[in-house]
Amino acid sequence: MDAFYAAIEQRDRPELRGKPVIIGGENPRQVVATASYEARKYGVRSAMPGVRARQLCPQGIFVAPRMAVYVAVGQQVREVFHRFTDLVEPLSLDEAFLDVTGSAALFGDGPTIAQCIKREVFSATQLTVSVGVATSKFLAKVASDLRKPDGLVIVPPGTELKFLAGLCVGRMFGVGPILKAQLLRAGLQTIGDVQQQSRIALCTAFGRDLGERLFVLANGLDDRPVVTNRAQKSIGAELTFSRDLTTREAARAVLRQLADQVGRRLRKQGMRSKVVRLKLRLPDFTTFARQQAIAATHVDQVLFGAACELLDATWRGHPGIRLLGLTAGNLVAAGGSEGVQRCLFDAPVASGKSERLLRAMDAIRDRHGEHAVRHGSERSGTTPFGPAIDSSEPQLLGWRKFPLGDR
Amino acid sequence: MKILCDRTQLQEAFAIVSSVVPSKTTKPILQNVLLTANENGITLFATDLEMAVKVQLEAVKVTKEGKVLLPARECAALLRELSDPTVTLDSTDMRCRIESGGGSFVLLGENPADFPEEAKIKPGRGMKMPAGRLLQMIKETAFAAAREETRYAINGVMMDFGGSCLRMVATDGRRLSISYYNLDGGKGEFKALVPVRALATLARAIPDSSKEELTISVGDKQIEFAFGKAHLLSQQLESRFPDYEGVVPKAADTTVEINRSMLESSLRKAAILCSDDLRMVRFEVQESALRLTAESNSRGRADVSMDITKKGAGGSINFNPDYILEALRVCNLDSVRLDMSDDSMPAKFTLGESFTYIVMPISGT
Q: What is the pLDDT of residue A335?
């Protein structure tokens, strides 16, 4: 989809049409989620800090994201895709690979289906989509990015090498600013320049794995199939703070919340995690990521414990913390017959009692919201978002003012 | 400085000392070995600031006393390659000439004055024991220590001495290994959490079943092992070690005696067909047999039985086979004992007169 979030806002709020609209980034420390094409002219890009976006485009209109709406529209778009093939591999909310090889007899060839999809997406959502039609996922992705917005680029079979040759090396996925600079230094400006290199030369210059990947991509040898239900690899959550955290207690309080969130999602999806990853960003944007193997678990307390060990091992005498993230990786299904490796020193957590406690907490949160039940430890001290339990929350005091049997 | 010495002896001593030399460091000077020659012979000394090793050699002819820093990697490689029985080292001004057979080599070193000094610990608490016995205890425990870098709390072996008994304990939170040594009339007490790496280095320096006496001295933050002409000094880990005595099961519903080599070979066979996600072998204690089963959805099934003698109720329990195999590898008994109760409670393996191993099972939720 073209500037998906921004396009939806412009569709729903006519006064925004033709104006530089920036979704996200209204707080100086938040990042830009999407910028409309009008805003992109000023150099505003996704993932750019709000401060920078404001410098580049002072007249930009900053809009808070409405994720629920975007998810719903994304669903509508995906429904259109599914009219043409069952082989749909979503990349994100608004992007997907479609394998239409088997649909030709029903709907016509690739370019024809692409036209139909563009039409039907527009009639369903009044939004434009850019499509690339090619013989591999990599080429289709590159082609779809080439003529945004509302583009349609077709790479006929047999013309792949020629199509790629003229493009900048930065178009290859996995080639970020640093690798791009390396390639330019090596005199490789276009994908065509890379095509001139032998596999061995690339591997010698960039290492075996990277060299191999560059060779495969530049020569359009990507043969990955379209996978409809990719197994989820990890579940994670992260928070950027409006003010840097400075104490271990505050960091632990955040990890406690993140562990609760991640544990809850693991349980919801019937998964267990065997690796806990901590992401920690310092005020100067130095980012650490460390991980630790654990026995397969979906217990908040175990995730929290591992995260705290990682925190202690990572955050040593640094001034503050800008961002904390917790990811549960290496997921395995929590099959009924499968067991868990028991631990010697944290037996209480592994007991059936705590399992029942977690289920009960999940049930309460399902019914009454995420903050309906909390850990006792959160009562003391403050979280980075204010007092741990603030007075603005509903308090069960009111009914006492009307004692029964007053008269 | 100028010395003449036996090449093999020097090479062996150098190998022990250079195992401490860090391969990556922010202080490149630590990648050297300090050689000091005086009227008593020579000493080799290396450190990574967390531990230090010193080895003395006496069978040396010292022509001129002095000190030199030798680059560890190059010097060790050179000593390995030389074939002449003797070697001459002659140093002037931070460079050292090594001559042996027809070859002559010059190694460029750094200033010996810049090298960290040997730390001394206040003698106080400590004990003595045969070196070979400590080697055995290290083998019986070190493998069970946590390897993950971040679990530093248990990334060491606890040496707990008191009541004339030395207990060495290691755990990674899922299994725990305890080895005992009883002294006649030892006195004093100490507790020290020793990094696994220090013990591994020490183990390399001790020949199997050595009867030679080894002295352990414990300071506030360091621990020293002195054995023959070798000294190893290590920082103690400062973290708290879990309460290990609390997890040793005191009673059991079922006690089984199993032939060790049978168990080891059967378990190895069963382990081939464990699933990748969860390495697990089921131990089923029947009337006079132990049945081991494993299953992998994608590869197949294993089912192995062996004779046992059993006391108690019987039952079944699941273990990670690797935990048990690692322990059996360092067990010398013909027959091992397994005490177990519930399939979610710790099980106890008796793998030697003074070697106990606790393993947590894998069980359903």
A: 57
By C-alpha distance, the chain A residue nearest B281 is A339
Given a cut of 90, is residue B301 above it in pLDDT?
yes
Domain boundaries, given as residue ranges, for chain B = 2-114, 125-245, 248-359
Q: Which residues of chain A from 247 to 306 reach within 8 Å of chain B, CB to CB?
A: 290, 292-293, 295-296
Range of the domain at A90: 78-158
Give the model's pLDDT for residue B165: 92
Total count of residues recorded for chain B: 365
Closest CA to B327 of B246, B254, B260, B242: B260
In the predicted model, is pLDDT for residue A380 greater than 60? no
In degrees and rounded to multiples of 5, residue B274 shows phi and psi of -75, 155
For position B153, what pLDDT does the model report? Answer: 60
Per-residue model confidence as pLDDT tens digits over A313-354? 888 878 889 889 999 988 887 654 467 778 887 644 445 677
For the beta carbon of residue A32, count every other beta carbon within 10 angstroms: 25
3-class state of residue A402 by DSSP: coil
Burial of B145 (0-12, 13-18, 19+ CB in 10 A): buried
Q: Look at residue B163 in the predicted model and tell me its pLDDT.
A: 84
What is the per-residue pLDDT for A407? Answer: 32
A309 touches chain B (CB under 8 A): yes
Do A267 and A338 share a structural domain? yes
Q: Are the Cβ atoms of A339 and B362 closer than 8 angstroms?
A: yes
pLDDT value of residue B214: 93
Range A181-190 contact pairs with CB under 8 angstroms and sequence separation of 24 or more: A182/A206, A190/A165, A190/A166
Q: Is pLDDT at A310 greater than 80 in this prediction?
A: yes
Determine contact: A355 vs chain B, CB below 8 A.
yes
C-alpha dist (Å) from residue A200 to A165, A208, A212, B157: 19, 9, 8, 48
pLDDT at A32 over 90: no
Domain for residue A290, yes or no? Answer: yes
Record: contact A332-B242, CB cut-off 8 A: no
pTM assigned to the model: 0.62
CB-CB neighbors (< 8 A) of B152 in chain A: 313
Confidence at residue A378, expressed as pLDDT on a 0 to 100 scale: 62
Is residue A406 a part of any domain in this protein? no
- Is A116 part of any domain? yes
CB A307 within 8 A of CB A332: no
Annotated catalytic residue: which of A38, A89, A95, A355? Answer: A95
- Let me know whether A246 and A390 are in one domain: yes
- The Cα–Cα gap between B223 and B193 comes to 9
Task: Give the architecture (CATH level 2) of B125-245.
Answer: Roll (3.10)
User: pLDDT, tens digit, for every residue of B138-164?
Assistant: 999 999 998 766 555 678 999 999 888
Active site residue A95: yes
Give CA–CA dist B176/A353, Å, rounded. 25
Give alpha helix (H) positions in A287-400. Answer: 300-314, 347-350, 352-368
Contact B173, B200 (CB under 8 A): no
Give the pair of three-digit tokens for residue B12. Answer: 């062996």
Query: Would you call A339 and B278 a contact, using CB atoms and an 8 Å cutoff?
Result: yes
Distance CA B86, CA B99 (A): 9
Q: Compute the distance between CA of residue B364 and CA of residue B362 in angstroms, rounded to an integer.
A: 7
Q: Residue holding tokens 């006649």?
A: B184
Query: Fold for domain B2-114?
Result: DNA Polymerase III; Chain A, domain 2 (3.10.150)
Residue scoring higher pLDDT (A172 or B312): B312
Say how far apart CA A36 and CA A44 lie, in whole Å: 9
Fold of B248-359: DNA Polymerase III; Chain A, domain 2 (3.10.150)
The DSSP element (H or E) to which A213 belongs, if any, is helix A208-218
Instruction: Answer whether residue A396 shows pLDDT above 50.
Output: no
pLDDT at residue A302 in the model: 87
